[in-house]
Amino acid sequence: MASAALLDPMVLAPLPPALLGTLIGMRLFQRLSDRGFARAVNLLLIAAGGGLLLGR
């Protein structure tokens, strides 16, 4: 049964968006300074926390 799950296309469906997000993130990381990267991470954390609070 485990081998049948590995051949299911739905298992591989998240792979292209994940790779695209990784590529975009790496490009942005190369362009940001250390301070800019810290700001971006903090803003994303605040946005994620706000989304969790508003989603209740």
Rounded mean pLDDT is 87
The shape is: flat
Distance between the ends: 37 Å
Low-confidence stretches: none
Task: Annotate the secondary structure layout.
Layout: H1 2-6, H2 9-12, H3 15-31, H4 34-54
In short:
The protein is mainly alpha-helical. The protein is built from four helices and no strands. It starts with a helix and ends with a helix.
Structural commentary:
This protein has 56 residues and is mainly α. It has helices at 2-6, 9-12, 15-31, 34-54. It is flat, with a radius of gyration of 17 Å. It has one domain.
What would the keywords be for this entry?
56 residues; mainly alpha; 84% helix
